[in-house]
């Protein structure tokens, strides 16, 4: 587990941790960095990897020379595992409601398909976002990919994109053979998760395309029967918002064949501030061997909901609703998983949309 935290004053990049509240069984040291953005200078950003850790276990830990204690739970090493999924979070009252609901869901890991803080070049909003998500992100692993609001590139003033995102949300990209923090993959409890980057090169000559091709070729479905992809700009979307964007259309044209041929089970998308679930689909048509596409960019951002949909509703779109919320993916075993979407104005036990997913690896009609 990598733990990242930011301090205004200097502190050693060390973590004490253990399986008892004293948190003094082990001690690991990492590195400290920072970044500059025009006139803003970040605090000290500390990165410490701790472990090896036992699966499905609560660990207690302390950061640097701070007496404050934290705890987190590691993911299970085998089924079942529960993912919380929420995109386009932001920092509104709706965001707080989404986080409260997620916190009640007893999830093992959070997956976020882009658009985190909505800082949009105002760097202290990254700090307030960190404080907002700290109660949850300090207790469970959060795995994220970037969206358009993470680019933060200003001509002449700041030419380097993703400066704050790459410094604050360092993902394990090198471990998956990627050359960029903007796309990577990892295995957890029988699930292979792929995070793609909508806002970096994705054509067939790009590093991302070649990396994805190799990554999918190396998936061992006996070891990880489920394959899940996250991307910010949606490849399928019947909302009026964000139609005709290159990051959606051109990336889909470039990579959809790879996703289909690898029999990816489900693709989570963000960007559109509403919920939508498609059938299994390929090349804009229903296909029992294609992924289920789910738009989950409804975390609670300040730009509001995308309330207008294309009419009539396409046949491949099975459920759509403009509301804030989050989803959970319960992967029970190698064959079955339950996807559920929860609106913020309902208590957690109420499912507004749910579907059982059957693993494509075991579908004899889909030759692997």
Question: What does this protein look like?
Answer:
Its cofactor is Fe cation; Zn(2+). Residues 81-275 form the Calcineurin-like phosphoesterase domain. Residues 290-347 form the Purple acid phosphatase C-terminal domain. The chain is an alpha+beta fold. It folds into 2 domains: 1-74, Purple acid phosphatase-like, N-terminal (Immunoglobulin-like, Sandwich), CATH 2.60.40; 75-358, Metallo-dependent phosphatases (Purple Acid Phosphatase, chain A, domain 2, 4-Layer Sandwich), CATH 3.60.21.10. Helices cover 16% and strands 31% of the residues. It has 5 helices and 23 strands. It has helices at 93-103, 124-137, 163-168, 207-217, 246-261; strands spanning 2-7, 14-18, 26-29, 31-33, 36-37, 40-41, 44-49, 58-63, 69-73, 81-85, 109-113, 142-145, 184-188, 191-195, 226-231, 266-269, 275-282, 285-286, 292-296, 317-321, 325-331, 336-343, 353-358.
Task: State the main characteristics.
8-stranded mixed beta sheet; glycoprotein; alpha+beta; 368 residues; globular; 6-stranded mixed beta sheet; 2 domains; 16% helix; Purple Acid Phosphatase, chain A, domain 2; signal; Immunoglobulin-like; 5 helices; EC 3.1.3.2; Purple_acid_Pase-like_N
């Amino acid at each position: 587990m990598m733990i990242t935290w930011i301090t205004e004053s200097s502190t050693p990049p060390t973590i004490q941790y253990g399986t008892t509240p004293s948190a003094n069984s082990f001690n690991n040291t990492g590195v400290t960095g920072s970044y500059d953005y025009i006139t803003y200078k970040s605090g000290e950003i500390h990165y410490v990897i701790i472990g090896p850790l036992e699966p499905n276990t609560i660990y207690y830990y302390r950061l640097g020379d701070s007496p404050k204690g934290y705890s987190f739970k590691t993911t299970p090493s085998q089924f079942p595992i529960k993912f919380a999924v929420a995109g386009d979070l932001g920092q509104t009252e709706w965001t707080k409601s989404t986080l409260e609901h997620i916190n009640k869901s007893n999830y093992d890991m959070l997956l976020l398909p882009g658009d985190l803080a909505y800082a949009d070049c105002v760097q202290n909003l990254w700090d307030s976002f960190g404080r907002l998500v700290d109660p949850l992100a300090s207790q469970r692993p959060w795995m994220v990919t970037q969206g358009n609001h993470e680019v933060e590139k200003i001509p002449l003033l700041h030419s380097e994109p993703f400066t704050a995102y790459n410094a604050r949300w360092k993902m394990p990209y090198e471990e998956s053979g990627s050359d960029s923090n903007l796309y990577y993959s990892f295995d957890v409890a029988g699930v292979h998760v792929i995070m793609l980057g909508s806002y970096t090169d994705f054509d067939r000559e790009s590093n991302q395309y070649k990396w994805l091709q190799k990554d999918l070729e190396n998936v061992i479905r006996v070891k990880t029967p489920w394959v899940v992809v996250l991307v910010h700009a949606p490849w399928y979307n019947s909302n009026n918002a964000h139609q005709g964007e290159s990051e959606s259309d051109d990336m889909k044209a470039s990579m959809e064949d790879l996703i289909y041929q690898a029999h990816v089970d489900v693709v989570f998308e963000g960007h559109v501030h509403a919920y939508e679930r498609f059938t299994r689909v390929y090349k804009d048509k229903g296909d029992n061997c294609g992924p289920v596409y789910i738009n989950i960019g409804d975390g609670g951002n300040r730009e509001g909901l995308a309330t207008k949909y294309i009419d009539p509703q396409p046949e491949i779109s099975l459920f759509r609703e403009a509301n804030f919320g989050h989803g959970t993916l319960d992967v029970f075993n190698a064959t079955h998983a339950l996807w559920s979407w929860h609106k913020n104005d309902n208590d957690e036990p109420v499912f507004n949309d749910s579907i059982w997913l059957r693993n494509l690896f075991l579908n004899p009609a889909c030759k692997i």
